[in-house]
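Posting this for the archive.
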Amino acid sequence: MLENIRKISKGFIMAAGRGTRFLPYSKKISKTMLVVDNEPLIVRNVRLLDNAFNLETLYVLVGYNSEMIRDVLSKIKGLKSRIEFITIADNQIAKGLIAGYAAIVPYLNKDEMFVSVLGDEYYGGEDHLPFAKFVQSSIDFSICCGLKKYDFPDEYFNNYSVDFDENTKIVKQVKEKPASITSVYFGLGFICAKSRLAELAKENIASASVINFINLFNLVSAQGCGPIIGHEFYGGYVNINNRSDVYKMKRSIRQKRWNSFTIDVIIPAWNEVESIEYVVKNFLPVCRQVIVMDNNSADGTAAKARRAGALVYSEPLNGYGDAIKKGLDRSDADILVVVEADGTFRAEDLEKLLLYIKNADAVIGTRTYWQYIEYGANMPFFQRMGNILFGGIITLLWWNRKSRFTDVGCTFRCIWQESYKKISGSLTGKGPEFSPEMIIELLNAWQRVIEVPVPYHARIMGASKFSNNFISSARTAIKMLRLILFKRYNGWLENLRSVKRIWLREER
């Protein structure tokens, strides 16, 4: 329990914005609903504020996607604070953050101190309690800003600059989107302030010219309400403005926890007794377990895989795609890896995929780089050209996902468990068409998919089930192309239905 000099009983989370810079992703989900450590960012910010402050009421300002936010916050258990919602009208949302602070005036008493945070900011969680102790027991102030030292200039330029005296803790001036670097500090959206800040925001909204919200800080101080002070944050922080910021945040979280993540390797197998032992033993040292999905092989594949140390499920399967999906469904590892049973991919190359998975949702290998096609590998000219062509078709048809593909049939790939769960219900392919379908459904779910060149080795022994001759390759190609076109056609239909639903809603 904090021994408070100053009681702060009200907190506000600003979560009403449309996320214009986050388009087209914000059409599906608002930034505040992005999942961080298995819970939406807005929920994380609520918990952090509730744990650090002894608030009576925590107000959440909503507008865009308000139903989704209300629903998820209504299900939070164990909070000390009472949650209430303030709805911002559509015509006010466009005015930006200043409209949000103007809207909280009726909820504050004269000169009352409050705490607020932006709903689309990620904080590592180490700084909330020190900040709470500081603002509740420090000298008189009008505004206290959370602030950080920047590592790279883009952090400084994408936020507001803070001219800060480390000895006195006084902030001499703040400036939104500075044109040049004049300080080592930038300001955060986490602030504690007197009600005068909100009152100035309301007065400014009512005037003919609306200024930037951060410029109000200097006005509050100039009116004699007390100085602006700062409190330095040391933990993780990302201001989420665009899609790149999302993956900057994800990489920051994943890098800290990297050694704790579990990895499972899934191998679809059918009559691969000659090679399965070598593949299992090759991958076991780099993962938690190898899961072999055996399609009731008649040649002893299952027994050989078990002796090698794999977890084997031997059962009737409807094909290569069915085997992979059921293997993925049976794993609870953080990272899921898929490889072939024939030795065409090696454990030494998994490190490359894992390097890129830190700031992506899935990483797909490509076997179409000549320099990486090993001597004797089954990649004839027409098969290579077919994979490049189909990869180009997916790249073109899903152009706004900003991904590029040159190989749709490469089995060697890895995906985060949380990303797989988003698409597992949409995967229907039973055969080789499963490979491009997995890519497509990741794109449909607006996941970041990275393609990485990987060495493609010759089979250890045996023959390919899908491309050992021209007829087999042609059948595989037809199945893949049919699925690609079908998925794109269905996507266009769904887009038209969405437009129609919006039109009907507006007509009412």
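The two ends are 52 Å apart (CA to CA). Residues 456 and 507 are 56 Å apart (CA to CA).
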